[in-house]
Amino acid sequence: MISKIASALIPFLFSMGAGYFAGKVKPGAMPLSSINTMLVDYALPFALFVYTARMQRASLAQHAVLIAVLVGVMLVPYFVSLLVSRFVFKSDSATAAVRAVTIGMPNFASVGLPLLRAVYGPESDLTVAIAVTTAAVVMSPAALLLLERARSAAPSRSSEARQTDGLLVKALRNTFLKPVVLAPIGGVLVSLCGWTLPDLLSQSLSIIGNTTAGLALFSTGLVLAVQPFRFDAQAGFGVVLSNVVQPLIALALVSLLAVPKAIAGQAILLAAIPCGSFGILFGLPYGVSDASAGTTLVASSLLSAVTLSVTIVLLGHL
């Protein structure tokens, strides 16, 4: 068991730590926006397309209930965080939205592939692909709706700015046109049609797709390096929601929905993944920079070394 935990966590912590070190030693030297573009628009979509296209139709059917589990795992903490931020900590709606998405959306894209592969093997690739796609489709609109609403309600908004009300519809449409969403959907269609990817195409896509895990973890470290750290009640509450409550929600849902054991374990481990940086990135174009969300991101990532270890041990006894 110790060997399994070490093989699952040490490589991902090392890669993330390397990115953090690079971001601290030479601040600004690493073009984070370019790295994220490479990851989100190319490497990850290529990997997700190949993984899903190779799956058998029977495997896809078995994973259908996983979507319901993942939606619950993300939306329950999202709404709890939103309500607490607004009515307990008295945050404005835009800041509350950034914080809620940061907490509710685990770092599936960066941590999911290397972690689940180490614990469950290559057969878990489809689970991660479904998780990334579900997160993009559900949580992107959840952030954009509130951020756009907050911007439209600003008193200083000019009449010219009000003409951009259609931006929300455009943003939501663009969510479903992103490569990271289209790629796994395309792969699923290939699998459902019973087609087989030509070896040359599969190998070509895999050259870049295989860089996903390392690139994603390294970029996460870079993001962590620039986040402020001021631990307070808000950050502590967010860490508890992300690292403790989310896996417990997954455990309750897989039991309630009678999810097959193999998929149930993968769903719980996905829910135990620390929160990601997408909420923070969503807020930047809207001028929202929340120190509490940044602190939650850093603290959740650090604490995940413990919470993921405990989750892996407990899953071994289920």
UniProtKB/TrEMBL annotation:
Main location: membrane
Membrane-topology descriptor: Multi-pass membrane protein
Keywords: Cell membrane, Membrane, Transmembrane, Transmembrane helix, Transport
Domain of life where this protein originates: Bacteria
Classification via InterPro entries: Mem_transp_PIN-like, Na+/solute_symporter_sf
Compartment(s): Cell membrane
TM ranges: 33-53, 65-89, 126-147, 180-198, 204-225, 237-257, 263-284, 296-316
One Gene Ontology term from the biological process aspect of the record: transmembrane transport
PANTHER family: AUXIN EFFLUX CARRIER FAMILY PROTEIN (PTHR36838), SLR1864 PROTEIN (PTHR36838:SF1)
Protein name: AEC family transporter
Organism, as annotated: Trinickia violacea
Lineage: Bacteria, Pseudomonadati, Pseudomonadota, Betaproteobacteria, Burkholderiales
